[in-house]
Amino acid sequence: MPTDAMSADEFRRYGKQLIDWIADYWQGLEDVTIQPDIEPGEIRAMLPAAAPEAPEPFDAVIADLDAVVARGLVHWQSPHWFAYFPANASFPAILAELVSAGLGQQGMLWSTSPVTTEIESHVLDWLVDLLGLPAHWKTTGPGGGVIQMSASDASHIALVVARHRAAAGNARPHDMVAYTSSQAHSSIEKGARVAGYGHIRPINVDAQFGMLPDALAAAIDGDLSAGLTPAFVGSTIGTTGTTAIDPIRAIGEVAQSNGLWHHVDAAFAGTAMLCDEFRHHQDGLELVDSYNFNPHKWMLTNFDCSVLYVADRRPLIEVLEILPPYLKNRASQVADVIDYRDWHIPLGRRFRALKLWWVLRTYGASGLRALIREHVRLARWLDRQLMDDDRFEVVAPTPFSLVSFRHVSGDSTTQSLASEINREGPAYVTASSIDGMHFIRVSIGQTNTREAHVQRLWQTLDRLAPPV
């Protein structure tokens, strides 16, 4: 019989050592180079060709955090992280993740872990109030929320439910049409392909990159005339490229009048709705069928934690509920309980709500609001510096904390500037393009980003950008 690899006393000792390692790692992030200087395959070359036959001392395992793991890290938790959107963590969330792993809960049914289900339902109901979402989205009403792995999973599920609803009217999947902004996240198109939609229509946008409702209505009319079945429309509050905002109410009215499922992706910007001053961007949510935002981006709750809300949970459960004999249980049959296995594709599920609960309790809504407002203030400060400098052109509004700009000399200079910033460090940005126009994205939202980090980025930009 194998012996235990680690005793409880050793677990305590090594656990404390690892907590110290993580704390030291965070404290050392101020001036590290965010992108590792390694070649593909370099990490694998450091690993043995075969798994160990005999046990190794755990001290050797921990030593490889420095010798191997640290060599290949991209430092997403750096305060100089301005790339993509953040994948934030925080100490309370990290500790909750540790506890979740230690408890080893399998929350597929209420009966398999009542606490996993009930904390998740309750905390997501809290967020309905905190974010100013429609009250009927709570689990105490006809709707409800569920934690998914990512916004991509949430949109995929919405597309599947919309397909199922359209099929109830005898429509065939290859005749179904999904609509979304030309600036929407690629997961909408991918999800429509996976769900078997025959047609995906990108809808034109206005000068600020928001979807044009009249263009949507015209596309729907054209498809109806062609004998197709419009089934789904996805709109966005805060697109990935520029944080553009689609007019939710106008799109919702078009969707309702034509019987389409309307899904809203607010993956990054949804957290900003903790603050009253941003909620006008989500006007019209009472017309929406499903909605998603990611606490693992701007709410300090580490990946994965993506929240999907539905206005009415019955269509969702109708599509996803399958009950084999081994999952039948008394609680599900006789009590009004939620079995979250019926709310997403996987059967199994971790205790992900624990970290969200701990973050909300540790920071409080006021602490999270203060962080969001500070990041937005810093983004608008940077926006002003760029607008006042004749070398730069801001290519999109800054409604939240993403600044999108380019060098006026054109695409080549803009791309070179982004590369130089990343090469010099410690800041890290991403380059992107819209309709062939290249620009630089600066996403301000990392847990530990402060004014000094944004000012240092501006100083780097000012120094590296060539004159006109």
Which terms would index this structure?
seven-stranded mixed β-sheet, globular, Aspartate Aminotransferase, domain 2, four-stranded antiparallel β-sheet, 468 residues, alpha/beta, 41% helix
Written description of the protein model:
With 468 residues, the protein is of the alpha/beta class. It has a domain at 105-350: Aspartate Aminotransferase, domain 2 (3-Layer(aba) Sandwich). Helices cover 41% and strands 13% of the residues. It has 15 helices and eleven strands. The strands form two sheets. It has a seven-stranded mixed sheet with strand order 1-7-6-5-4-2-3, with helices on both faces. Strand 10 (430-434) and strand 11 form a beta hairpin. Helix 5 packs parallel to helix 13. The longest helix is centred in the C-terminal third of the chain and has 35 residues, at 353-387.
Oligomeric form? single chain
What name does CATH use for the topology of one domain? Answer: Aspartate Aminotransferase, domain 2
Query: C-alpha Rg, in Å?
Result: 24 Å
CA-based shape = globular
